[in-house]
Every structure is written in structure tokens, then in C-alpha cells.
Specification:
Helices cover about 35% and strands about 35% of the residues. By secondary structure, it is α+β, with helices and mostly antiparallel strands. The chain has two domains: about 5-105, Thrombin, subunit H; about 110-225, no CATH class. It has a six-stranded antiparallel β-barrel with strand order 1-2-3-7-5-4. Strands 9-8-10 form a three-stranded antiparallel β-sheet. α2 packs antiparallel against α7 (about 200-220).
Length: about 230
């Protein structure tokens, strides 16, 4: 079970267009997405603690996540943008427990896409390789598992006036005046994030923290892959 600080650690992004999918046998629409959970809308009644597999597609890749309902609305709400067939919807929050196959990689790609869209064009170009850095190959995952390397700890980078202060930490909380990364993060990636953070506005900095969270989630192996 994830501790409270871990559940709050990763932010979620609203999807401009909800993605149609299924939770078990129920048709659902994914409305926001994060490493550890999602908000969905649906017609059927769901109960807290219900568990089922959430399945949806993004860029022709299937994403499958074993999920648990952690809260749900008791009454349907009216969605004026929905079709006549799906005007009444209920909202439920999901917590992801396991990723099926390489769904964890595709989930990170989707979140990186959302984060990069929120950045300015120049910042997005500077951070293009952040997605590939955050989404490591299956071969690297196997190498880590074979070496039985535990989480290396983290480094928090805070912007104080015009200079950066780096501190070691056992926790990966993202500060409002900077970001947190695994201790072994590539130096060039750290420098790119620092430069982008310095020139970004509030929304851009939120997205940069989200990109940092992708590296953190990889180090913590979240969501875990089903065995």
C-alpha cells in the first residue's frame, strides 16, 4: 500500500479530449491522468474498493492498468458537451495498482505529452528528450532488477533568487520553487530543467515538475509492472 505522501506526490493532467475506454465491462471516459491514478466518467454505478482493469488507447498503443475505485459520485451529473446518449455521467477516482505489459512506459509517454503541451515552444524543444529519458527501455528495467539496485535517493533543486541550491533527500516531494529528481539523474537533463524553470511561468513550472515526477516514478518503479 502506498503511503499518503506517495499518493499526493504525483500530479494529474486534465485531458483536452476525454479518452474512451473500459473499466472491466463498463464503458468509461478518462478525463485526467497521472502516474498513480485517474478521474473517469461513466454511466454505471461503481462502488468504492471495486477493482478492475482500466483499458484505453493512446497513439495506437493500448494502456492497461489494474485499478481500484477510491471515490465515486453518488448522483449522475449533466455534461453539456456529451452526446445525447451519454449526457448523464458519474465521476469516479481510480488508483492504479499494476501496469500490464509495457503500459507503464506508455502512461509516462502520455503524461510527458501533456506536460510538454503546457510548455512554451522554446521550452518544449529544450525538453524534447525528457520523455525518452523518463521512459527507460525494458532492457534497462531488467538490468536494474538483475543488479537489485534499490532507489538511489533523491536530489531537490531550489531556485533562490538567481542561483540553485541542491540538497539530498530520502523523499521525492516536488517543491514549488524547484523540482526533485533521482540522485543519479543525467547531469545534462538536470541543467536543461534548471534553465527551462528559470524562464518559465507558473504553468510552465508546473509542467517541468511533472516531467521531473516521471523520472521519480521510474526510480520508484510506479506503477509497478504485473508479474
Amino acid at each position: 500500500m502506498l503511503e499518503g505522501k506517495d499518493r499526493r506526490q504525483f500530479q494529474r493532467f486534465d485531458l483536452e479530449t476525454p479518452i474512451r475506454g473500459r473499466l472491466g465491462k463498463a464503458e468509461v471516459y478518462v478525463r485526467d491522468i497521472g502516474i498513480l491514478g485517474s478521474l473517469i466518467s461513466h454511466d454505471v454505478v461503481l462502488e468504492v474498493t471495486d477493482r478492475a482493469r482500466l483499458v484505453f488507447s493512446w497513439e495506437d498503443h493500448s494502456i492497461e492498468l489494474e485499478s481500484e475505485v477510491v471515490y465515486t459520485s453518488g448522483e449522475p451529473f449533466f455534461d453539456p458537451e456529451a452526446t445525447a446518449r451519454t449526457k448523464k455521467k458519474r465521476n469516479s477516482g481510480l488508483r492504479f495498482h499494476e501496469a500490464i505489459g509495457r503500459s507503464d512506459e506508455q502512461l509516462r509517454r502520455l503524461i510527458a505529452h501533456c506536460a510538454n503541451k503546457a510548455l512554451g515552444q522554446d521550452e518544449a524543444r529544450a525538453l524534447m528528450f525528457a520523455e525518452s529519458r523518463a521512459v527507460k527501455s525494458a532492457a534497462e528495467d531488467r538490468k536494474r532488477a538483475e543488479a537489485e539496485v534499490e532507489s538511489p535517493g533523491f536530489r531537490t533543486y531550489r531556485l533562490e533568487r538567481s542561483s540553485w541550491r541542491k540538497t539530498a533527500s530520502d523523499h521525492a516531494t516536488q517543491p514549488p520553487d524547484g523540482f526533485t529528481l533521482p540522485a543519479d539523474e543525467d547531469v545534462d537533463h538536470v541543467q536543461l530543467l534548471c534553465r527551462a524553470f528559470e524562464s518559465a511561468g507558473d504553468e510552465g513550472r508546473k509542467s517541468i515538475r511533472a516531467l521531473a515526477e516521471l523520472s521519480v516514478s521510474q526510480a520508484k518503479q510506479l506503477p509497478r509492472r504485473a508479474q
